[in-house]
């Protein structure tokens, strides 16, 4: 018996084809020249199919990026919490560096970050879908450390998140120096212990 | 006697008109639609005049931004060094926040930052003309503190610069929270003293 066509499977395949096409194209053309038409043609789907699922090329790119970077399971991200704050954060910050320097992820992330800088709609999408959930997970891990007495009680957790991840993001964005595991480790040590000279250190 | 026309004065006036036109236009149209033609028309100068002085619209914007933010005296930036590290850095970091939240500066800075994210030529211009000299000044101020025994001897000064300024830049870029003097002060305190709980604190 011939297999019956399964519309939901076909639709998952088209969705996948659109995400792949967007990822390919964003590495080939500048973001300004990336178009829904171009993505549709590359994915061999109709433009209307794309518009049914995504409001904009930034939304496609964000989905493509999420699918690549963390799997497409729709789960909210959670940071490891073994009780060893330094080991957990070191792992995560090194993983951030690995993602930011992964050539497959670099182009879509730069395109999204650049769009988010001056397009408030993209910034909102970026915040709601990507940065917001990640930020919650980071804050949650730091809160757990604060409750365990490992972080100072008067530290604002949003400041703490920015202190640990901000230097890595700004070095990536400005290409202001090498983005390495060593840099990640140095940032983490400096953020936890501070820059100030202290006796016995 | 009628004044003799002064070509160098006329040329300074045209230059100023181009910078003003670029600043006006970047607040009115998206960066992608900002054009040399549009700037020339608004400034009432010929396109060739612009091309004689600037290689690209990003270069115009960078000059406009530099002229606005720090005067056009061509001097390399220097950070205050009164010997009081906290007071000096607080002043400078608050000034950074004031610039980043100044509505006249916000549009050209976002346009430049976004372009620099995915255009390596603009990134280089940005680094050479704006970020590089500022970074040198920051590193110099921190080196002076390190030599005075105020910063830990083993701190990498590039890491230190990123730890103090990175959180402010990344909050501005991602609009991930309020960018206030209070935030600047909190970042500075956290960067100097670290996030870790310590006895007697």
UniProtKB/TrEMBL annotation, chains A, B:
Keywords: DNA-binding, Transcription, Transcription regulation. It comes from the Bacteria. The keyword Transcription regulation applies. Residues 35-54 bind DNA. The keyword Ribosomal protein does not apply. Residues 12-72 form the HTH tetR-type domain. PROSITE patterns: HTH_TETR_2. One of its GO terms (molecular function) is DNA-binding transcription factor activity. PANTHER family: HTH-TYPE TRANSCRIPTIONAL REGULATOR RUTR (PTHR30055), TETR-FAMILY TRANSCRIPTIONAL REGULATOR (PTHR30055:SF148). This is TetR family transcriptional regulator. It comes from Cellulosimicrobium composti.
